[in-house]
Amino acid sequence: MTVTETLNPAAGAGQDAPTSAAEILARARAAAPLLRRRSEEIARGRRLPEDVVELVRGTGVFRIGMPKDWGGPELTFAEQTEVIEALSYGDSAAGWCAMIGMDTWIYAGYLDETVVKEMLANPDAITAGLIFPVGRAERVPGGYRVNGRWPFGSGVTHADWVVGGCVVHSDGKPEPGPGGAPVNWRLVMARREEFETVDTWHTTGLAGSGSMDYQATDLFVPEEHSFDFTTPRGSGPLSAPDAFLGNVPGVPLGVARAALDHVRELAADRVERATGTPWSESYRVQTVIGQAEMELTAARYAVYGTLDELWRRLESGVEPTPDQQVSSALARVNAFRTARSVVSRLSDLVGTASIYQTSPLDRWLRDLHTMCQHILAQEQIVQSAGAHLLGGTPQAPFPLGLKG
């Protein structure tokens, strides 16, 4: 019996499970207003409530990386981003957790088919965890003895499987990695209940993502439940080492779009206090809205254009040029920064009404500020892109899809 035969797209989600990009996107858009109504509750609880998790799961977002030859929809990078953008339009934390949780099927591309059959009998399974090697995996017969504590476990409170990046040790010493790497960086996967969560997530923004620490003490992980990004089982775009990063900019783009639409709705009933001029006729307001639309539209098209180009190159088996390699990473950073800038200026336009917690602008601005502290939105990515283009040394090669 093959993986394709056993992993029916409807398994674990009822017979109405979505099977196409269009249907998944339609469900995500339909869920957005429901998520918007729950945003304050999500933020207060500092995690997604169980029924919200199931609402998001029901859109099909967690199966968007499932390959077609396994019976899945296999959305392109741009299609994935559009789904994440739609969910983020409803709620920042829900969109963020969806973006993180859909990596399940990306990781599956590095595991044996027999393991995938066991771990992902439910194609809508959710993954959480930090991939960077802050844990320690001691090699033992049949697998690894894992110890460590990982920060930023977005969605770890509701995930089915949790990953943790580790440095592999043998006889107490770090192993060299493949291709001459100084250490052997390997990811281990185990069920959520095998890890202990540590409630550290008390933040200004993205409070509802539940991105708390998690830890393992002497956890045995079988060899077959571990992998690294150098040895994909298949080929194609979803086997690229940075495949799980393609849809990340959907979150800031969705949040900024929500904020801009919100302020445009406010403008319909507002007037300038000093002059009585309707906002629709105010030069000041018109300019802010026009500038915001210009910048957000340009950032969005940069994201989708570079993702489409990268997908086409990888799908054809043609190695991307240095310019193409870095273009999507730079567009990703720009999406984060542009979204924060746009929402900040919209908050300035609305004025004191935007500072209250009852205003969604307050939450959106705090969420974007927190997102922009993520490593994928940092100056290090810009430096690494410039270094790669100039033939220098990138400080963060992995987010650019470089293997070393």
Automatic annotation (TrEMBL):
One of its GO terms (molecular function) is monooxygenase activity. Residues 36-107 form the Acyl-CoA dehydrogenase/oxidase N-terminal domain. Signal peptide: none annotated. It holds the Pfam family Acyl-CoA_dh_N. Keywords: Monooxygenase, Oxidoreductase. InterPro entries: Acyl-CoA_dehydrogenase (IPR050741), Acyl-CoA_DH_C (IPR013107), Acyl-CoA_Oxase/DH_mid-dom_sf (IPR046373), AcylCo_DH-like_C (IPR036250), AcylCoA_DH/ox_N (IPR013786), AcylCoA_DH/ox_N_sf (IPR037069), AcylCoA_DH/oxidase_NM_dom_sf (IPR009100), Histone_H2A_CS (IPR032458). Residues 252-378 form the Acyl-CoA dehydrogenase C-terminal domain. The keyword Oxidoreductase applies. PANTHER family: MEDIUM-CHAIN SPECIFIC ACYL-COA DEHYDROGENASE, MITOCHONDRIAL-RELATED, NRGC PROTEIN. Belongs to the HpaH/HsaA monooxygenase family. This is Flavin-dependent monooxygenase. It comes from Streptomyces sanyensis.
